Amino acid sequence: MKLSAPMQRFILHWGEMGARWGVNRSIAQIHALLYLAENPLHAEDITEVLQIARSNVSNSLKELQTLGLVRREHVLGDRRDHFSATHEPWDMLMAIAEARKQREIDPMIEILRECADAADADPDTPHLARDRLRRMEGFVSNLDGWYAQIKKLPQGTLVKLMGLGTKISRFVGS
Q1: C-alpha angle 150/151/154, rounded to 5°?
Q2: What is the separation, in whole angstroms, between the first and last Cα of the chain?
Q3: For residue 89, what is the enclosing H or E element?
Q4: Secondary structure (3-state) at 24
Q5: Is residue 3 pLDDT above 70, yes or no?
Q6: What is the number of domains present in the chain?
Q7: Alpha-carbon distance 169 to 120, whole Å?
Q8: Which residues pair with 150 in a beta bridge?
Q9: Are 99 and 80 found together in one domain?
Q10: Which of 41, 51, 116, 119 is deepest in the core (most CB within 10 A)?
Q11: Domain that holds residue 150
């Protein structure tokens, strides 16, 4: 697979963005390559195009499959596994959001709940600290509940809501 200059730039930038979001650069670059590829690629193709170690490609593909961003495919006449990425940006966003929620938000809610409960039971914890812990736990739990409601909406509805952004803010008076 030959990469044009814009494709190379996108792959490099996607890798940089992935690093900023807490994802290994190689994982993000492989995802970007598969997103742009016309056909599913096997690991050797990915290794050759991106000049990344084969073991790194293998581990990155496993991670991308776990995140739901890449799927394994079989190509008739080729015994190797081939891989493709979803080409729908909305599906990518939702898969990334869900993975980050599970990795970051769910444990945070659990820790906040434990801390707030322990503070409530601890006479040495000042009332102000107890209140702030409980407020933070409530805030993050509310965000989690909002996310759960939002992800149930059909994609078309969510896209319309995004398009209504400024109209909604004017309607609610901000």
Answers
A1: 90
A2: 50
A3: helix 89-100
A4: coil
A5: yes
A6: 2
A7: 38
A8: none
A9: no
A10: 41
A11: 89-163
pTM (predicted TM-score): 0.77
Q: What is the number of other CB atoms lying within 10 angstroms of the CB of residue 62?
A: 13
The residue count for the chain = 174
Q: Give all strands (DSSP E) within 43-120, no chain letters.
A: 70-75, 78-85
Q: Write down which residue in 37, 61, 85 finishes a domain.
A: 85
Place of tokens 């509310």: 142
Q: Rounded to 5 degrees, what angle do the CA atoms 66, 162, 35 make?
A: 35
Helix axes 25-36, 54-67, angle to 10 degrees: 80
Q: What is the pLDDT of residues 18-35, one digit of tens each?
A: 888 888 899 999 999 999
**What does the block give as tokens for 84?**
């493709």
Q: CA 52, 57, 60: angle at the middle one, nearest 5?
A: 125
**Integer Cα distance of 174 and 167 in angstroms:** 10
Q: Is residue 168 part of a domain?
A: no
Does the pLDDT value for residue 110 go beyond 80? Answer: yes
Of 50, 85, 120, the position where a domain reaches its end is: 85
What are 31-69's pLDDT values in tens digits?
999 999 999 999 999 999 999 999 999 999 999 999 889
Alpha-carbon distance 32 to 24, whole Å?
13
pLDDT tens track for 149-161: 988 999 888 888 8
174 pLDDT band, cuts 50/70/90, is low
Query: Mean pLDDT of all residues in the chain?
Result: 92
